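pipeline stage [seq->struct] | target=Cytochrome P450 | organism=Aspergillus homomorphus | residues=458
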Amino acid sequence: MIPFLTDAVHLLLRFGGWSLFAGFVYISCICIYRLYFHPLAEYPGPLSGKLTTWRAVWHGRSGDLHVDIWRCHQKYGPIFRYAPHRVVFASNTGFHGMDILPNSVQQEPVLYSIPLIKEVYSTLNVFDKKVHGRKRRILSQGLCDQNLKLLEPPLLRVVDHLCDRLGEKQDNFSPANMAEWSDFYTFDVMTELVFGRSFYTLDSNSHHYILDGIMSQMRRMSLLTEEPMIERLQIGRFLHPGAMAKALRFSQAGRSIMEDRKRNLNPGAADICSKLLSAKDPETGDGFPFQELSGSDTTSTAMAAAFFYLSRYPTALNKATNEIRSGFTSIHDFRPGPFIPAGMEVGAGIYALQHNTEYFPDPFVFRPERWLQSKSKGGDGGGGVDQSAFAPFSTGSRSCVGKRLAIIEFTVVLARILWRFDLGLLRGVRQGEYHTDWCFTSKKYGPYIQYRGRKVVE
C-alpha cells in the first residue's frame, strides 16, 4: 500500500510540475505577444497596463483611477495604452471623435453585462443603439423645457428646506459637512421631482441606507467596467465586501417606490415619473420601463466641490457672493488622430482631459472667472478655457439627457446658500484640490465649512 501511495505522490508531483511549466510558458507567450506583437504595442504606457487590466482594477478599488490616468498622461503624453486592448486620450479631438464617428466606434459591451436588475438596461448600459434611441426619445419627453418649468416649485421647496436646516444653528460660523448635506439635498430633489414626494433625508436618517446602496452599486460598476471577469469569478464580494447586498437593498427599495407610484399614477401630476409612465415613443409606441428611473450622485459631487473651492478661495467667494447679492433683491428672484486597430477599446479620462493645460491653463487653480473668457465665446483663451474640452455630462448620443435639470438643481441651491449665508474656512483643513475617490461616479469627503446666517439690513 505504501509503495502505491509513494508512486501516486510522485506522479502527482510530476504532473503538477509539468502543469506549472505549461502555465508559465502560456503566460510568458501572452506577455511577449502583448509587449511586442499586439496591435497596440507601439503605444507608450505603464508596463503593468500593457500586460493586464488588473492595474485599472487596483486603482479603481483604491479610488484613484482618475488620478492615475492623469499621471500617466503626464508621463506618456496625450494618448497612451492603459490596458492590453485599451488606449486613453486626453485631447478634445480624441474625446469628440468617438461621437463624430458613430459607425466606427460603439459602446463597450462590458457595460451591457452589469445591470443590477436582470434584463433591465438603462440609457447608460444598453448596448443596442436602436433601443438606446427609443429610451432616450421617451426620457426627453419627461425632461422637456415645458416640464422643467413645472418642476420649479418643488425644487425650490427642497432648496429652501436645505437653507432652513443650515440656518437652524445661529452660532457664529457653525461647521457643516457639505458632502453629507449635498447628498441629502440632491436625493430629496430627485425623489421630489421624479416620484412626487420627498424622502426627507435632510431631516431623518431612515432612508440614508438608500444612499449607501447607490454608492455600493457605483463601486460594483466601477470594477466591472475595468474587468468583467470579476463578475464571472464571483470575487467582487472580496474586493468590496457587502457592496452587492447594499446595492440589492437599494434596488428593492427603488422597486417598492416605483410600484407605489405606478399604483397612484396621476397623468396630470408635474413629477417626472408621471410624465414618463404616460409617455410613448413617437416612432414605436413603446412606453418606458419604470425600473430604469434613478440618479442624483453627480450633482451632489459638483455641489460639494463648489463649496470646497469657494471656502478656500476668498476672492472667488467674494465675487460670487457679491454678484448674487447685488443682482437679486430677494432670494426668490433668480477628428484627426492616430490609427486605432479594429476591436480595440478607446476612451478619454474626463479628469485628465479637464486638467490638460492646453485647454485649462492652471488647471489646479480655482478661478471661475475663466469661464467668462472661454474661447467658444469669442475670447482669446488667455487664462480662460476651451469649452470643447469641457464635458461633465459626456457628449453625443450617450450624453446625460437630464443635464438641464442638473444645472438648474445645482445653480439654484448654490445661489440661494450664498445669498442667505456667510461662508468661512475651518482652520487646519485640506487645501489645494477637492479630493474624490473614483467609483464610476465619485465618493467624496467633506468639505467641512463654517457658515452663519447673513445679517440683512432692512
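stage status: PASS
auto-comment: The beta strands are 79-83, 86-89, 174-177, 345-348, 421-425, 436-439, 441-444, 448-453. The first strand starts at residue 79 and ends at 83.
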